[in-house]
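Summary for the steering committee. One of the milestones for this cycle was to obtain a three-dimensional model of the protein with magnesium ion bound, which we needed before selecting residues for the alanine scan. The sequence and ligand used are listed below.
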Amino acid sequence: MRYLMLPLLADAAPPPVVLGLGALAVVAMIALVGYVAYRLLRSAKPLPPSADLLDGATRREPLDQATLKPAPSRKDQEKAYLHAGLAKTRQEGFVARLTQLFAGKQLDAELLDQIEEVLFRADLGVQTTRRLLEDLKQASTRHELADPAQVWKKLRGQAEELLASVGHQPLCVQADPGPAVLMVVGVNGSGKTTTIGKLAHRYAGEGKKVLVAAGDTFRAAAVDQLEVWCERAGVPLHRGKDNADPASVAFAAIERGRAEGFDLVIVDTAGRLHTNQNLMEELKKVARVCAKGMPGAPHEVLLVLDATMGQNAVKQAEQFQQAVQVTGIALTKLDGTAKGGVVLAIAEALRLPVKLIGVGEKMQDLRDFDSQLFVQELFDPSER
Ligand SMILES: Nc1nc2c(ncn2[C@@H]2O[C@H](COP(=O)(O)OP(=O)(O)OP(=O)(O)O)[C@@H](O)[C@H]2O)c(=O)[nH]1
Ligand SMILES: [Mg+2]
């Protein structure tokens, strides 16, 4: 049997030459793979320094590319805008005067009288001042206010409550079907056009398709001013003929907004004295015609008030409220006045939410109103 198998085994085994060639091929393959791996490793970019090396404790924060330090959070940014915007009110307005008043004094009837005087002069309004004082007096008779720190705490709590009672509604810039229509009204020079420019910039930056309607047809310069803002914001401007009926310009812009798939149409209007009946009638017409162009429009009627006007701003607002259905306030020029307390008067007298505040003339100087932050920065204890 063994003799029979031998010739077969001898046939099956590969000849030594083939074995040698096979081994050579395997070695060549290993060498090739090794070489390719070596080249790849050499050409790879070095890894960036570990975030741990930069700042291990805050490595989840995005880094400011200039300083390689964590970028300030959104909340910190808002605080900074408000802190700067309310500087005058804190340093020259009622907060500063109360600080002087409280220095080294006990709370007694005389001090309460003095507080009353400061608050009355601080554009907080009669109603607001009465309410604040009533609370202070009651707390004082209950011996709850032993020192100024407690008075501050009480005032701060009252301000928070007052603003919270009006509620917080962000600006409505979305409608289904679109576009949402935002009509902007106010007296001359209150900051309507500037606010529109800032809003257009913001919403276009968020990816919305924004159209601005040049509803101030009284002055050619007003349209030119709006055009400059629109160019900066990168949004189109819908303009009518000079002296055209503002309602017709708003209507045509809304029609265009619908036809061309815009998300938001912002309608500028001419500044007008709240006491001028004819002009207030014209404003009513613009609002009515907006509703014809788009059911439910205008979705927002934003009243732009100049904070430097103090109590006058509240009076203006009352008249505008009677003419059109104002849905919110943009309070501009807070940076230039010590009358920031007017925010409380607006809440008390008008029951209207302040939705936006203007704290400067640059694009980013229009901020959403955050009542908690506002009170925090208004009564900032670090400056007392
Ligand atoms: N400091 C500061 N200035 C502002 C702010 N908002 C607007 N302004 C300035 O206020 C002035 C009037 O602003 P406009 O936007 O033209 O006001 P308007 O309400 O459109 O004025 P009319 O169209 O004439 O009624 C401009 O010089 C603006 O730069 C703000 O928040 N802070
Ligand atoms: Mg204007």
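Key point for the committee: The pocket of magnesium ion (ligand 2) is lined by residues 192-193, 216, 222 (CB under 6 Å).
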